[in-house]
Design goal:
The protein is of the alpha/beta class. The chain folds into two domains: 230 residues, TIM Barrel; 49 residues, no CATH class. It is 48% helix and 12% strand. An eight-stranded parallel sheet has the order 6-5-4-3-2-1-8-7, sandwiched between helices. Strand 7, helix 9 and strand 8 form a beta-alpha-beta unit. The longest helix is centred in the last third of the chain and has 20 residues. The radius of gyration is 20 Å and the shape is globular.
């Protein structure tokens, strides 16, 4: 199986010491990210849940909804896309199907995690037993091409199972076929450094603005040999704040005159980004014949 998107992502990763990876959730955010100069994109499950379902990231999204988003985004940008796959949508058999489907739809890679979805108890944070998680990663690896990138995310540190358990899991993930891994919920510089020292797999780091590591200077993180810096919901948060400001003003004042500096101006910038003018120019001759 040939996957040109995955080949391109592999090339980017091999040539870049630290890849900044922005989270996107629809074609507009993907196009804006690509135009900003990002070489690769990440489909954020959290941002997708907020924008598509209006619900929190509690596993409400289905495989079909992720698939639709992947298909739309891949068709609208050239930058390779890594897509969130939650915990694979089931056991190893379902995880393999997820990987194969993502690749068929044009994704260059996926992120799979060990969070229990749905949780057995709504107030309890749980992670999947490694005896069940390892086979999922192995199954995805066998179901996709060699170029397809697999990123494993462990919630062991996030859910207080300990940094040692998190490190154990990411190292086992490499043996199962993962290409990169990250420990979510890192709570101290000491643990950030410990993970860097003891990891046997290339590392991604979550730079989500609400987390501890997101508050550190990026250069400090780069110095610890992390390979990918993920900003999963930055675009969604920025878009939400813009809509809050503009729509709030419109509701109160009945006009957007006071907030037009928060809007894309002129609107033709978005029209151009969507290809409106090029399409009109391309097909107008057919109407003039």
């Amino acid at each position: 199986m040939q996957n040109e998107h995955a080949k391109e992502l592999r090339k980017i990763l091999s040539e870049t010491s630290f890849l900044t990876l922005p989270g996107v959730y629809d074609c507009l955010s993907a196009k804006i990210a690509e135009e900003a100069g990002f070489q690769a994109l990440f489909l954020s499950g959290g941002a997708l849940a907020y924008s598509v379902l209006g619900r929190p990231d509690f596993g409400f999204l289905s495989l079909a909804e992720f698939g639709t988003a992947i298909q739309h985004i891949v068709s609208s940008v050239h930058a390779p896309l890594i897509a969130d796959a939650d915990n694979g949508f089931g056991n190893a058999i379902q995880a393999a199907n997820t990987g194969a489907m993502y690749e068929q739809l044009g994704a260059a890679g996926l992120q799979i995690d060990d969070k229990v979805l749905p949780a057995n108890h709504p107030a309890k944070n749980e992670i999947i037993d490694w005896g069940l998680m390892g086979p999922k990663i192995k199954a995805v690896r066998t179901a996709v091409s060699d170029d397809f990138v697999i990123i494993y995310r462990t919630c062991a540190e996030l859910y207080d199972f300990g940094v040692d358990e998190a490190i154990r899991r990411i190292n086992l993930a490499k043996e199962c076929g993962a290409d990169y891994a990250y420990v979510d919920g890192i709570k101290s510089v000491e643990n950030l450094e410990k993970i860097s020292r003891e990891a046997k797999i290339p590392l991604m780091v979550n730079l989500n603005e609400k987390g501890f590591v997101g508050g550190l200077p990026t250069e400090q993180v780069k110095a610890l040999n992390y390979c990918i810096g993920l900003f999963p919901i930055s675009a969604m948060l920025a878009a939400a704040q813009g809509m809050i400001d503009v729509l709030g003003a419109l509701a109160e004042q009945g006009t957007t005159l006071t907030v037009r500096d928060k809007m894309t101006n002129p609107p033709t910038k978005i029209h151009r980004m969507m290809g409106q003018f090029s399409l009109v120019e391309k097909y107008t001759p057919y109407y003039n014949e």
